[in-house]
Amino acid sequence: MKWSRLTRVGSGYPFAVASVAVATAVLLPLRGLLASDQMTLLYIPVIGLVARLAGTGPSAAGAIAAFFAVFFFFVPPYDTLRVAAPRDWLTLLVFVGVALISGRQTALMRQRERLATLRERDLALLNRLSSRLVSAESASELAAFVASEVVDVLGAARCAVFATGAAGAVLLADRGVDAAGVGEQALADWVVRNDKAVGLGDVDSLPVDERPIGVGPAEAVDGVIADGIYLPLQVSEGLEGVLYARPLAGHMVFPAHKMRLLVAAGNLTAAFLERVHLVQRAAGAAALRETDRLKSTLISSVSHELKTPLAAVTARITGLLEQDSLTDTRRVRDELEAVEADLGRLDEAIGDLLDLSRLEGDAWRPRPDVYGLAEILGSAIARIPGDQRARVSFDVPDGLPGVLVDFGQLARAFYSLIENALAYSPAGTPVSVSARTLGADVIVCVEDEGPGVSDDEKGKVFGKFYRGVAASLVPSGTGLGLAIAREIVRGNGGRIWVEDVRPHGARFAVSFPDSDATGA
Amino acid sequence: MGSPERPRRVLVIDDEEQIRRALRSILTSRHYEVASADTGEAGLEAAIDRRPDLVVLDLSLPGMSGLDVCRELRAWSSVPILVLSVRDDDQDKIAALDLGADDYLTKPFSAGELLARIRALLRRAVVGDAGPQVVTIGGLMVDLARRVVTVDGGEVRLTRTEFDILAVLSRNADRVVTSRMLLETVWGPEYSSDLVTLRAHVSHLRRKIEPSGGVPRYVLTEPGVGFRLVAGD
Q: What DSSP designation does A252 have?
């Protein structure tokens, strides 16, 4: 690459003449062996080399120099500028013509090659940027990528990407030399406010509508001279941010092809930032809709849970009041007992709703300690009414490792699982609760001999207010028990799932890491 | 539940109007007579004037704290005290039990839980502090005088420590017994913090008296507080 500098510093012409001189010195000993027209052929590659390394002008100069060299040294009579045979004039003229043309062709080819290489590099950069556009997770990730590409590929001293914030420009990422240029923040803020570029850049080769409109380096902020270019990242709905790039020391501006790339990188970055905003806005709207939907489900379910027992109580009491005399004490007593049962249901429904809302609202946080599963299950079964308790059998081996959980919460969760199993299986059928270790986990299973949970329902049973297909079997139940169990198990670092029991039945399983294994 | 000849009088000390009103309606519907107070000072006065059979005491009172009320009350009365606490208040709850409160309920509680606790406390108060010499709970029979324990009719051999633990729990059946109370009664005051030993002995005791399956039915854990021997429904 060192040679290619020759054109820039203007040393191509001396290089051309020197090359011809060296070639002549090398060829001089062959003077007696080859004819002058053969000699001219040997100069063609030299002119080609000059053309390749130094361009069209020097290659023409080399051709002229070679013409004189051949004329003087190789056309008889030697060492004079005279021609013995008229045929040699033709040789000389043809030679200089061929040398000029081939030199020019070679130089053009080389230029095209260089352009192609540059364009390929630009394309590769844009490709990388656009693929990041799809894969980047966040604005700052993409900004960091753009900044490092601009520094590495465009050879910038520094690059910074700003987003439009409420109070001005907010730095997303920067790369290259540190110590942000004097007034970098002030200039970026100015760009955000005025939606105009600041700094110098060769934009003449850009299509007119893509040229950034801007002001000179000293025109934006008083007393601050921009040491690079600040491009506004424009999108259809305004400004997404600012792309700042500072050329390497010793350069005032980025050349045309780099400006093109900067503008293109800026456009891609702007498109990404806009997409991020749109996605956020869409997600916000979707979340709002979902919350609304949940709220209305919740409200309708809550009012159903609370209204049903209340309606039953009201009906019974109204029925009693409408009688002329309450002489049938037996019947009054039956009705009052039914009222008491309904009120019990109401009490339970309110308790469930409170528990769930506390869990979801993070107002009932687990306070874990190491407990044996047996003692937790003991507390759970103590809450099950005595007549139902007989259906439940336990198999919890001695020496099971402890688990690190909140005792009260887990007792509540196991109570829900056992109650659920009792409710969704025929009266009198057994419900078995077992515990065992599996690898580094401790697993508790609650199995019933009911109809089981269809694959279709498996994902739904833990949802709020979901009451199974078999719910008609179950007189009460809020449809919250399993949702509460799931919230609790997850909150305590465990897993909960449901699977089939052969030939029929459901197995609800809960697993926790063994507290010894977790080092608790 | 048969009605007692004289309605039992319950004093509710709670600063929240809603709780007082809810407790009043739950309790009066069950034929209890209810007195209420909204501060600790008023509560102590009412305890002197009205001579309640049971006190329901909220621990988080403005001014004089629930713990202070508990201490003052215990200075001259052995009336059963049921304290109400919020979920994250284990320390206050344990302190109240150590000061002589008889049981606790964590808010929010259901009417059923409240009534069950009140019934258990009043039952004990009727029997008096001497208590029965034989406690029978489901299939479990503890003969405190003869130091004999049977489960479903079969005698169970317990070590001295295991029996002492079971004895303390039996005398306080249906009520929570703090770990500290167990340790001090069974081992002596100097052992009041040896929770690991206590848990190990309780675990052995359970293995001997609990029905098969490994899950306790009689000796329940009260997390962070202690244990409770339940009579069941």
A: S
